[in-house]
Write a structure and sequence with these properties.
Elements lengths: L11 E8 L3 E2 L11 H15 L9 E5 L11 H8 L8 E4 L5 H14 L5 E9 L7 H4 L5 H7 L6 H11 L4 H20 L10 E3 L6 E3 L11 H5 L30 E11 H6 L6 E10 L9 H12 L8 E4 L5 H10 L12 H4 L6 H16 L3 E8 L3 E9 L3
Parallel strand pairs: 3-4, 3-5, 10-11
Antiparallel strand pairs: 1-8, 1-9, 2-8, 5-8, 6-7, 9-12, 11-12
Helix pairs in contact: 1-2, 3-13
Length: about 400
């Protein structure tokens, strides 16, 4: 998708973007007591309320969600629309492109507006990883099937792919831990400065004496150091893989991987003409987007070709981009990407990423974009580029233009 901003009659604009706090995806996590439907419903309610928008005017709610099982199996967006009190005629659809599900929801919303099928949409994402855990119970023993496995016999879990990426780009454990500590430090600094205040909406969680509002990220570990992270054991048993991949370095730990997290996020997207008619000031416009497939064994390298593709489509160069959000699924992902593009540290994940803030799978695409929009507005940057690696060796990339002074 490529939008010519000079000639487009009516571009798709993002009027607002909000998210829940990020809660640790454990039984004792701050949001673990909140049903995922209710988690998303609270975010939807506050998004509409703070923009004084009649929810009856929403054409569709597009929701990214990866773990569509258990409490997330009944089209969670539709249930959240009902729980939020929206009129029953407002529909919803669930989108699953693994870690890029929320970003794909944004792309589909924009495409629907540009085609004339939508005037007003919400793109959102939700994942309660404490209540719908990852693992074989959800995925099955063989999620690939015989056909894919016979064509690509070396398919491996994502953690092993992260090890392979580290080996290919010769990334050391020290580099991974340095980067991960910096993610926490940047997120802690942003939180202390109030940089997340406008994007976070509070979520009422069950408490002993009634609902307790959760309004701050639980995942950021202030004071984290590379030395402390370096003492963590490797996360994966590599013995069964070394015959095929003797180069595996054993450098991936829980500390340089994204956190299992509960969270939700939502963006209000509409045609610029409709925003103008409603007296709403857009925060950003989508310039261009792209999706690619890449090596399914390395799996996590898709952001590299996706970035090349979206830059080519947009006519922009990397020097034109004020900030890059490269999802921190594992530290080798943004570091390998950085080596390919030579981007300085200051422009890469400037307020931390999923290593510090967490990775609620289906919500992360919208969470990253929400944070990027607010960061550009706060710092005066013009363009932002977001890209997400995805299971199966895929990636989304999107470029936005900030429209706030």
């Amino acid at each position: 998708m490529n939008i010519d901003l000079e000639t487009a009659m009516d571009r798709a604009v993002i009027v607002d973007a909000v998210r829940s706090p990020m809660g640790r995806g454990k039984a004792a996590g701050a949001l673990a007591g909140v049903h995922p439907v209710d988690l998303l419903a609270h975010v939807l309610t506050q998004l509409v309320s703070r923009n004084d928008l009649d929810p009856a005017t929403i054409d569709d709610v597009l929701v990214g969600c990866v773990g569509q099982a258990g409490e997330q199996s009944a089209t969670p967006g539709r249930q959240a629309v009902l729980a939020a009190g929206f009129p029953v005629h407002v529909p919803s659809v669930t989108i699953e492109r693994k870690c890029g599900s929320g970003q794909q929801a944004v792309d589909f919303a924009v495409q629907g507006i540009l085609s004339g099928h939508y005037d007003i949409t919400i793109a959102a994402g939700v994942e309660s990883m404490s209540r719908v855990p990852m693992g074989s119970a959800r995925m099955g023993a063989e999620p690939h099937g015989e056909g894919a496995r016979s064509r690509f016999p070396d398919l491996v879990p994502q953690g092993i792919s992260a090890e392979l990426v580290a080996a290919k780009w010769k990334l050391t454990r020290g580099e991974l831990d340095d980067y991960s500590a910096r993610s926490h430090q940047r997120a802690a600094h942003a939180r202390a400065a109030g940089d997340f205040d406008d994007e976070i909406v509070p979520i009422p969680a069950p408490g002993e004496h009634g609902p307790v509002p959760v309004s701050a990220d639980e995942t950021i570990r202030e004071g984290t150091t590379a030395e402390r992270l370096g003492r963590l054991d490797p996360a994966f048993d590599l013995n069964s893989y070394r015959e095929r991949f003797p180069e595996l370095p054993g450098v991936i730990s829980a500390g340089n991987s994204s956190q299992i997290t509960d969270g939700a996020s939502a963006l209000l997207i509409m045609s610029e003409q409709r925003a103008r008619a409603l007296g709403l000031r857009p925060r950003a416009a989508v310039v261009s987007s792209a999706v690619v497939g890449d090596d399914p064994t390395l799996m996590l390298t898709g952001p590299i070709p996706a970035t090349h593709k979206v830059l080519a489509r947009s006519g922009l160069a990397s020097d034109d981009i004020s900030t890059f959000e490269v999802n921190e699924a594992f530290a080798p992902v943004p570091l390998a990407w950085q080596r390919e593009f030579g981007i300085e540290e200051a422009r890469l994940n400037p307020v931390g990423g999923a290593i510090a803030l967490g990775h609620p799978l289906g919500a992360s695409g919208c969470r990253l974009m929400t944070t990027m929009i607010h960061h550009l507005s706060r710092t005066g940057g013009r363009y932002g580029l977001q890209t997400m690696c995805e299971a199966g060796g895929m990636a989304n990339a999107t470029i936005i233009e900030s429209l706030t002074d």
